[in-house]
Amino acid sequence: MSSIQELRRKYRPTKIKYLLIAESPPVCEDDEVRFFYNPKQEKWDFMFKAIMEVIFPDFKTGYKKGDKHRYLQKFKEAGFYMIDATDTPINNLTLRERNDRIESESENKIKEIRRLISKETPIFLIKKNIFKIFHSKLMNLGYNVVHDEFLPFPARWQLKFKKKFKGFLRKVYNP
Asked: Which pTM value belongs to this model?
């Protein structure tokens, strides 16, 4: 788990301008940590590719194998940062077990969010269960959740995710 935290910290902007919240880092069975912020891991990287394609128009035509670090750096420099609702891999659990874990850790995660951003910082919630658990809690605390409907998980819903994320992002981001 510490390697996931180290990878994430490496790409944390000095000032976070946009916060994305996903479910959790994935369970990994091999030596290379399958994780958004791992520049060495490019296989099965649906979340990374979908997000970068929306934020950086040159990604679709300009990305080549081995460029992940460069785009993570651009992501950081633009002020984007992604955290997970739980830092423990849970994608091997049932949906109910995942939601119970996230719900039980949500107050600590909100404390982390308080330390990371101001209430004006735009927040994007990725995945239906993350939206359900965090949207009203964050809105009631005065945070700027940019959207009032969930963003689907990009591994399964690439086109839908990109279309919705692009629409939500336009409200707050002008490169």
From this structure: 0.92
Count of all residues that appear for the chain in the document? 175
- Average pLDDT of adjacent 10-residue blocks, the chain of 175 residues: 79 97 81 78 83 92 88 96 92 92 96 97 96 97 95 84 93 82
Burial string for 93-121 (b: 16+ CB within 10 Å, else e) reads eeeeebbebbbebbeebeeebeeebeeeb
Q: Give the C-alpha separation, 115 to 99, whole Å.
A: 23
Sequence-separated (6 or more) residues with CB below 8 Å from residue 90:
23, 24, 27, 97, 98, 101, 102
Helix axes 128-140, 95-116, angle to 10 degrees: 40
Give the Cα separation of 78 and 172 in Å (integer): 13
User: Of 22, 128, 24, 18, whose CA–CA distance to 80 is shortest?
Assistant: 18
DSSP 151: B
Indicate the residue type of 5: Q
Q: Which long-range contacts (CB under 8 A, 24 or more apart) does 26-31 make?
A: 26/89, 26/91, 27/89, 27/90, 27/91, 27/92, 28/89
* Structural tokens at position 15: 């000032």
Domains observed in the chain = 2-170 (3.40.470)
